[in-house]
Write a structure and sequence with these properties.
By secondary structure, the protein is α+β, with helices and mostly antiparallel strands. It has 10 helices and 10 strands. The chain has helices at about 10-40, 45-55, 70-85, 85-105, 110-120, 245-280, 290-320, 325-350, 360-370, 380-395, and strands at about 125-130, 145-150, 150-160, 170-175, 185-195, 200, 205, 220-230, 280-285, 285. The strands form 3 sheets. The chain has a 5-stranded antiparallel β-sheet with strand order 2-3-8-7-6, with helices on one face. The longest helix is centred in the middle third of the chain and has 37 residues, at about 245-280.
Length: about 400
């Protein structure tokens, strides 16, 4: 058992789940990840294995066919999966966010309709908030849903849908004109059903194709174009328009814990590769790990891995206790993603020229780590959230 990134106070069930996933990662993901990533191939066999393990229903309550586990359990599972290949963790991330939103904000009818199939991995979720002209400026959303009798008609374009092609249920944030005084009160979340695939998948909804990315290959990242797309009012999450902003922010909050967990996973793998290579590669008559310059790098990398893991675990446990964790989730995401970039780069340097070769795993990690500086809000957005929360808590009287 490795010393770094251990979690105290887990139940026997949690320990068993994490151990099972770690074994799955070592046997079924790590040996195949580099080849699949270079081919930009969807990891169908790996996804099928996760379905058999019940990971798509990990946090879904048992009454709806899931395992009923906590956010912490999920985050630790994501950490292990990202250690193998970050793209695989992306397959279940947005699915998890949509399931979480349904569990906490959906009507009972919506829960009964979607959660059992989501637990099986048959219904797969995607999360859509960003647009081509905006990211974190949620109030500036242009995609609109206009009411037409009992239905709504949606027009606009969405961007950066992870699982946009492979999913068949999208949690979609749009603008609805409700005449409210605050922009955020005009936002509504719709549950959009569609078949998987690309092109005009249903009348009025087109998924153009995969976006070609620097890293984060395999998983499909897409646009979604709505042109006169008609949807019943019953597909509004929670059954009430105007609540979309709070729904999405709740989902993003757990998403930040997820991104922190992914960053931890990549950091752990980068450290594992570096510490192994440093003991095998010899210069000037001894392994490079025995050179103080390399030994100090390893010490700093290990410290960063441990710190990020502890902050991620703390943020998850706060949410599991029903406490507000916006500041802590922001801190965990900020620190874990920044440390991930730093640890990965140090591992790359330790590998020397070989780190630049596509034959070595660290080359892939170097292209994946930067994504986590952006996903679920940039570091600058996290600093804004953190500072606002702290100033509110420590307000001068």
């Amino acid at each position: 058992m490795a010393r770094l990134a251990q979690t105290a106070g887990l139940t026997d069930v949690q320990e068993e789940i994490i151990s099972t996933v770690r074994t799955f990662v070592d046997k079924e993901i790590i040996p195949h990840a580099t080849a699949l990533e270079h081919e930009d191939a969807y990891p169908q066999d790996i996804v099928d294995g996760m379905k058999e393990m019940g990971l798509f229903g990990l946090t879904i309550p048992e009454e709806y066919g899931g395992l009923g586990e906590s956010l912490l359990t999920y985050a630790l599972v994501v950490e292990q999966i990202a250690r193998g290949w970050m793209s695989v963790s992306g397959v279940i991330n947005t699915h998890f966010i949509v399931a979480y939103m349904l569990m906490h904000h959906g009507t009972e009818e919506q829960k009964q309709k979607y959660l059992p199939q989501m637990a099986l991995g048959e219904t797969r979720g995607a999360f859509s908030m960003s647009e081509p002209d905006l990211g974190s400026d949620v109030a500036a959303i242009k995609t609109r849903a206009k009411q037409d009798g009992d239905d709504y008609v949606i027009d606009g374009a969405k961007m950066w849908l992870t699982n946009g092609g492979s999913s068949n249920l999208i949690a979609l944030l749009v603008k609805t004109d409700l005449g409210q005084p605050k922009p955020y009160q005009n936002l509504t979340t719709f549950l959009v059903e569609k078949p998987s695939g690309f092109g005009e998948v249903v009348p009025g909804l087109t998924i153009p194709g995969k976006i070609d990315k620097m890293g984060y290959k395999g998983v499909d990242t897409t646009e979604a174009v709505f042109d006169g797309f008609r949807i019943p009012g019953s597909q509004i999450l929670g059954g009430e328009a105007g609540k979309g902003f709070s729904h999405m922010m709740d989902g993003v909050e757990v998403g930040r814990v997820n991104v922190a967990a992914r960053a931890c996973g990549i950091s752990i793998r980068a450290f594992e590769l570096a510490v192994e290579y440093a003991q095998q590669r010899a210069t000037f008559g001894k392994p490079i790990a025995e050179h103080q310059a390399i030994a100090f790098k390893l010490a700093e990398m290990g410290t960063k891995v441990e710190a990020a893991h502890l902050m991620m675990v703390n943020a998850a446990r706060l949410k599991d206790r029903g406490e507000r964790n916006d500041v802590e989730a922001g801190m965990a995401k900020l620190l874990a993603s920044e440390y991930c970039a730093e640890v990965t780069q140090e591992a790359f340097r330790i590998h020397g020229g070989y780190g630049y070769s596509k034959e070595y795993e660290i080359e892939r990690l170097m292209r994946e780590a930067p994504f986590l500086l952006i996903g679920e809000g940039t570091s600058e957005i996290q600093k804004t959230i953190i500072s606002r929360g702290l100033l509110k808590e420590y307000k001068s009287r």
